Amino acid sequence: MAAVLLIGTAAVIAGGNILWTCDPAIAKQLFTLHTVQVPVDLIRFHDIWGPTVGSVEGQEWKNHRKIINYGFGPSTLPIVWEESIHQTETLIDRWARDEFVVKSPRTWMSRIALHVIAGIFFDTRMDWKDTESSNTNNDSYTSSLPNAILTIMLHLGVLFVTPRWLLGKLPFEPFQKTNKAFVDFTNYMLELRAKVLEKSDEVSTKRSRTMLESIVVAGSTNLSDPTVQPLSKESILGNIFFMMMAGHETAGNTLGFALLLLAVHPDSQNQVQQEVDDVLGERPKSDWSVETDYRALQKGYLGAVLTETLRLYHPVQFVWRTNVAETTVYDSTGDSHVVPANTLFCVNFAAAFSNPSTWPQAKISSAKRADLHFSRALDFNPTKWVHTREVTDNPTHWPFGQGGRTCPGKAMAQIEMVAVLATLLKNYSIELVITEDVLKACGDDHRIARERTRDDAIRRLEDDVEANLTIAMLKDLPIRLRGRFDETSP
Ligand code: HEM
Ligand SMILES: *[C@@H]1O[C@H](CO)[C@@H](O)[C@H](O)[C@H]1NC(C)=O
Ligand SMILES: *[C@@H]1O[C@H](CO)[C@@H](O)[C@H](O)[C@H]1NC(C)=O
Ligand SMILES: *[C@@H]1O[C@H](CO)[C@@H](O)[C@H](O)[C@H]1NC(C)=O
Ligand SMILES: *[C@@H]1O[C@H](CO)[C@@H](O)[C@H](O)[C@H]1NC(C)=O
């Protein structure tokens, strides 16, 4: 993915100016000015089937956007909540097989985000079996829909850098595998689409629809809304796929970082657990609701933890824009800059939210800070959001974007992330794993070993963070779940 984007970038740079910025004031203007657009030529490599909401502009974009918005209707949100809770419970069972040691939190959290997407988009419940284990009973397919989804998402890089006609011809396993999954996925989508169209009258009156049903109905038939134009078959498939990409690593990486930050900051974790106990009490999971429980947790400390995680470790590193006419932008100090037409803007999205001049740092001596590699994990402080976060137009922090292209998946992502963490922290605490080696080196002193492990984790939360299109932990940093009410727990 990175390679293609870089090649694409190089081609654009060759013909014009490029402006890199991480100034939140400039970024905000770029997201809201009419003369500034998405550089569609650069983004086109996303278009595996046809144009999508992310790769078109103007009226065409408005039309795509209206159609996908049908998929995020109010009936979807309770399903996001329930599926996220179910997936977390079954994931905990899966982790029990590894004695509750989670080697790579990020990998599992990306996977849970994908499972939730499969539930919401296709009404397909994915389980935690390994990729190869579940098979299809239809000879037309080599793998089940869940397996095809998983394989494609694990090989997105291959899919983007290889021309489609070549993919099936290269005799190497990753290409063959990806190609088979791609062909399967396309056929599943077409089959599902045909089924929806066959009974579109019935589907359009259903109270609760899958994302696929909503998009197919809105995109294929003439709706009562005369401003919505039908989309090509390729664009329907493309939009579904684009949303799977947009919702997968974003929510997954954020959850992965949140778990690690809570392991490093047990005091914050305690506050979340207290709030979860207060809000959910002893009620069974079937009573937890998106209307009251989710809202309380999102408005409270748990929502603040997620907002703070997104401030320090926003998964989106770059967002691209270009201007169709000469544009004047004003930086944070109030100075104006005239930018010639057709400049390519590269907004360093993640960096725009961590400017130390906007965000006071934790009071830690500079020697300690240096010893801990100036890690941003040190500045994790959710409290700052508890009363201010609901201001919708916070000028300094808008993790889901600004202007017309604001993330349409915001509510889905927030509900999913709150549901996963609440379910997990209700019965379990998360802690770092102290290895035998560290324990021995600390003369079997558990307190010293715990401190050393924490310091090391803080360093790695800076050093091992991959800033490469999406921001994630480059290497595994294991955590362990400990039962909160389990007396026999070691
Ligand atoms: C923590 C999770 C997420 C974060 C931080 C996030 C962030 C963002 C941001 C900043 C943008 C704007 C990009 C721009 O201005 O060019 C965006 C766009 C988008 N997001 Fe999200 N997102 C998340 C989850 C999701 C989910 C779960 C979905 C769908 C299932 C989704 C679907 C989209 C789509 C389709 C767009 C493109 C909108 C357009 O171009 O009109 N996102 N997201
Ligand atoms: C198998 O897949 C083909 C091709 O998509 C489809 O037409 C057929 O109905 C499927 N058969 C069964 C038994 O599901
Ligand atoms: C929608 O309506 C237009 C004109 O009213 C017609 O040309 C077009 O075929 C219709 N499309 C579909 C998918 O029904
Ligand atoms: C927590 O544990 C209790 C007792 O074993 C169980 O009834 C409940 O379902 C668990 N809750 C979650 C969220 O897993
Ligand atoms: C981005 O990822 C690629 C492939 O994983 C790697 O080769 C490259 O060095 C990374 N770039 C940066 C800036 O980390």
TrEMBL record:
Binding site for heme: C407
One Gene Ontology MF term: oxidoreductase activity, acting on paired donors, with incorporation or reduction of molecular oxygen
Signal sequence residues: 1-27
Cofactor dependency: heme
Keywords: Heme, Iron, Metal-binding, Monooxygenase, Oxidoreductase, Signal
Superkingdom of source: Eukaryota
Keyword Translocase attached: no
Keyword Membrane in annotation: no
Family: Belongs to the cytochrome P450 family.
Protein name: Cytochrome P450
Organism name: Lophiostoma macrostomum CBS 122681
